[in-house]
UniProtKB/TrEMBL annotation:
Record keyword Transferase present: yes
Protein name (Swiss-Prot/TrEMBL): Methyltransferase domain-containing protein
Organism expressing this protein natively: Pinibacter aurantiacus
Keywords: Methyltransferase, Transferase
UniProt xrefs under Pfam families: Methyltransf_25
Length: 231
């Protein structure tokens, strides 16, 4: 395997003919992975750092590529535990994902939007916009536009939680999914998503191309990058 360059092989999840029951199983297993390998914890690190910049009576937090809403649910649990009043916005282009997120999280104070994120117009800017395991689905030129959009549409800033392209990460997740996964999507896409992940220098180039110079890039276990851009 060549780990020096990103793979551009499409993931199965990027196809538009996958039955939703298969997508649902994929989202359930990804939530398990995020829970036990620290993915939700990385998202919370991004929330905490951006909230340090300003005290708010109520924070508006938006996730693009929200899938089944598991990340927002995890953030909400943290907000409730820490007495942070919050309103959430979940955006996903897949209408079935939005329906599933709405049904799964009926008590979440959230507006669910089925749309291409770039077409969404906010009546009030979210304080924080973030994405988790979303960016590796896109080309570098698309990511520059995405980061600019996230910056322009947030009042405190945005963060990205995504994959570090790494040999150990690839073979580890490949082995784990072969043993434990019951989803053909996860078995195919999880290792491939690592190959579509990023090196630190690639992220710096994307951020520079988007003219975003006030940023931090931190490596997190297990083989994730946390990119934070403050307004």
């Amino acid at each position: 395997m060549n780990f020096s360059q990103r793979s551009y092989t499409p993931e199965l999840l990027d196809r538009d003919d996958i039955p939703f029951n298969d997508i649902k199983r994929n989202m359930q297993e990804l939530d398990f992975i995020n829970t036990w390998l620290g993915g939700h914890g990385i998202t919370l690190d991004g929330i905490k750092e951006l909230l340090q910049t300003q005290k708010l009576e109520r924070v508006i937090i938006c996730e693009i590529g929200c899938g089944g809403g598991d990340n927002l649910y995890a953030v909400n649990k943290w907000c409730e535990k820490n007495n942070v009043a919050a309103f959430f916005i979940g955006i996903d282009i897949n209408e079935h994902c939005i329906e599933y997120a709405r049904e799964k999280n009926p008590s979440l104070n959230c507006e669910w939007i089925r749309s291409d994120y770039a077409k969404v117009m906010f009546t009030q800017k979210p304080h924080i916009i973030f994405s988790s395991l979303f960016c590796h689905h896109f080309l570098e030129e698309q990511l520059q536009k995405m980061f600019q959009w996230m910056h322009d549409n947030s009042s405190l800033g945005f963060f990205v939680n995504d994959l570090h392209r790494n040999r150990l990460a690839y073979y580890s997740i490949k082995m784990l999914t072969v043993i434990f996964s019951r989803s053909y999507l996860v078995k195919n896409d999880a290792p491939l998503s690592v190959l579509r992940g990023f090196s630190k220098s690639e992220l710096k180039t994307i951020l520079s191309g988007a003219s975003l110079h006030r940023h931090s890039i931190k490596w997190k276990w297990a083989f994730r990058w946390l990119i934070i851009v403050k307004r």
